[in-house]
């Protein structure tokens, strides 16, 4: 993906500083917390003692770093992630003697602590954090335009890998699960994933996507289950006017026909056949990041869609997209990463609802200003951060994290002939866009599902599901 092509040129970027940037101004407010020794210790934060502590501190622009600042503010307002950092819970995960890399998580947590302890009138320099993210992902070295979604992917991946509770990954199982009913197969695939990837970061952001491929010749259906960190939604083309987020989600989950050169091989027909493919959500994540695919790439030139996508601030009900009956898939919006301008020159900001006050603010690099919730929706919205509504809703009286007992059995029993015997060959072709934002690391293919536009088919993205979890 051509990140540079869809990045930003900050209109508000200050003059570039030489390396070693950051925090040198007269109002530098990047006090160094104690650097981590062999064993990390928890800084003492007394949030209650300050009336000004609201997470309303801005981030300095280091030169084209608005994409980073926008994402950092969205994450800073992610309640559970904020608590994980501010209450130093992350230290428990980092304090493992066999762990070798801890700097990214440490700097990220320090930065969030600064954002929640500095006076609102100050702006914090993210330069030390930047040093670590570019060490983890060298593509972020320098001050080039970058894409906020790609940055989010890399950042979450890096944080996850440093606090992964799995220190020695077991060998990936090669056992075929195709004989299992879909629901059980999905559950087993999730279990396998968690045997290798298990962190607080993943607990928040990772869901599971189900893709179903059905042969039009013999009716055979194969399924694949893949974890996802966000969903990239295509924006429907309409002549004029607005579209809704539900329109985008319906297009994303719409049945696609794979024909012509796209034909997969059906293992039952033993031949390439016309098939239909469909996505559904098997497991809903606590935090759902929806990426509006405003940037389309056509060879060299990249264009941007400025379509106004109307999205709800409350009660985004995704139950119709669940792979099986699920009574708990209602989300509330708490942050938006916006991109204004064009592909050649643009600027990122964030709108965030404070997990403390519930008030919305605009985060524009170092400037933080109150805003009305009625202004949150706009045609600049690029990444939407939704939080799963409290399980105490009447729809899901049990709440909790029961991963083994799906509710609502019978509402969506697999149609005859669909359960079991998936075709691995077909499944493998079902998601042609698998690929790479991750660093090359064995066994991470599952995470790589990326949105791809391929020969007219919007393989928008990816990844997946289980409402089993919550319902
Ligand atoms: Zn077939």
UniProtKB/TrEMBL annotation:
Q: Does Protein biosynthesis show up as a keyword for this record?
A: no
From the UniProt record, give one GO term of the biological process aspect.
proteolysis
Q: Which InterPro entries match?
A: Papain-like_cys_pep_sf (IPR038765), Peptidase_C19_UCH (IPR001394), Ub_carboxyl-term_hydrolase (IPR050185), USP (IPR028889), USP_CS (IPR018200)
Report domain USP positions.
Answer: 57-389
Q: What is its EC number?
A: 3.4.19.12
Q: Which reaction does it catalyse?
A: Thiol-dependent hydrolysis of ester, thioester, amide, peptide and isopeptide bonds formed by the C-terminal Gly of ubiquitin (a 76-residue protein attached to proteins as an intracellular targeting signal)
GO molecular-function term, one example from the UniProt record: cysteine-type deubiquitinase activity
In this chain, the stretch annotated as Disordered covers: 1-40, 395-426
Q: What stretch or stretches form a coiled coil here?
A: none
Q: Does the keyword Zinc apply?
A: yes
**CDD domains per UniProt:** Peptidase_C19R
Q: What SUPFAM superfamilies does the record point to?
A: Cysteine proteinases (SSF54001)
| Primary location recorded for the protein, binned into one broad class | cytoplasm
Q: Which family does it belong to?
A: Belongs to the peptidase C19 family. USP2 subfamily.
Q: Please report the name of this protein according to its UniProt entry.
A: Ubiquitin carboxyl-terminal hydrolase
Q: What organism is the protein native to? A: Crocodylus porosus (Saltwater crocodile)
* Gene encoding the protein: USP2
